[in-house]
Amino acid sequence: MIKKVYFEPEIRVDNTSSIPLHRQISDILQNALEHNHVEAGMRFPSILTMAKKYGLNRDTVRKAYNTLEMKNILERDQTGRNLFISSSFLEGKSRKPLTAIGIALPDTLLSVLNSSSQLPLRIVAGIMDTASLHGIASMIVPLPQDNQESCAFEQWKQDILPMLSGLIYLGESRENSHNKAFDFLLSRKDLPQVFIGGEAFQEHLGTVELDQEGAIRSVVDSLAELGHRKFALFGADIPRRQKFQLQNIDRFPLFEKEIRRHFSLPEENIFCGKYDSAEARTWLTGLLQEPQKVSAVICTGAYEARMVMETASSLGRKIPEDLSLVGYDLGTTEKIATLRYPYYQMGQCAFEIIMEARKKNLHVASLRKRLPLSLFMNNSIAPYKKQLKKG
Q1: How far is CA 64 from CA 14, 67, 69, 83, 251, in A?
Q2: Considering the entire predicted model, what is its pTM?
Q3: Closest to 337 in 3D by CA, of 346, 327, 329
Q4: What is the pLDDT of residues 311-325, one digit of tens each?
Q5: Separation of alpha carbons 80 and 59, rounded Å
Q6: Which domains, and CATH codes, for the chain?
Q7: Is 168 helix (H, G, I), strand (E, B) or coil?
Q8: Residue 138 dihedral angles phi and psi, to the nearest 5°
Q9: CA distances from 353 to 184, 320, 321, 334, 370 (A)
Q10: Which of 46, 51, 102, 236 could form a disulfide with 58 if both were Cys (CB 3.0 to 4.6 A apart)?
């Protein structure tokens, strides 16, 4: 037996408006159909069902439905009793030009430009370049902070939605709170939305995730093949975000799990906290002063890797002759072996998810993608035997 799938819109009419009720209803229904995911063969509620659900007069609902039929938005089956979304409407919807794809940054664009790491800009470049190739506009979406005046926030809500045909999130700021803006945007399930670099925490979100597990496995395997058995793990304690939690929070526990799956990893060889703290420097200095304790240090961030290089140099330990070092997400100019994010491709992929969903009339959530990370070996790792000979 074929299950009947109904389109279930929300209707709120203004009884004080000069616009006739049937016109308000037909406009609401048309707008809902244009901005929600709908499929061919999706059935419309009967006039009686709609009238009872919203306390409307049946003649008013009938007039609204007749208007939609005249516009070829709805069509009846052979019996003439049942209403469905017309195939011609769906075809026209897929050909309708997009307005703009919005990009929600974790912070203001100026803050990103002024930060020491401008890596998020590569994602933005991937989105904007791909959008321009398709002849579609893209824009940075300004996010009001939670402490902004309510009237300004309401105006932002009215202004932003008409500009957007889709939305791509890059994460969430630690310093500034945009919960009200996020809650409003996420409530608009009719708007295709993709989160880059994190897991889908709402079922309607599309995602571009990274295969961290496979990449981390390749790091440990590569060092093991070079004869390393004495590891140290150095990383920052990443605070959990309220909504848009990036996958980077899982780096440290994934590395710890993978190393311990094969080798011993003493607690004294592990540091997870503030990388630039006196505690971190004391731990690292003590670790590197005793060469027999560790032959390879794995860092879960760029800052930690640079700190290891500086500390090793100050102690007279050469990399890679005396110590192998692997970083995480370092830039192309660094001379450290590192796992590197495909930032530009992440932006491209997020935009393409929205385009594919629109073209095929699919939910973006059904098109979630997972991209690999690349391991760049560079000159900071060497075989363990070579280190012993040099020592």
Answers
A1: 15, 5, 9, 13, 55
A2: 0.74
A3: 327
A4: 999 999 999 999 999
A5: 17
A6: 21-94 (1.10.10.10), 97-391 (3.40.50.2300)
A7: strand
A8: -135, 155
A9: 22, 42, 45, 32, 12
A10: 51
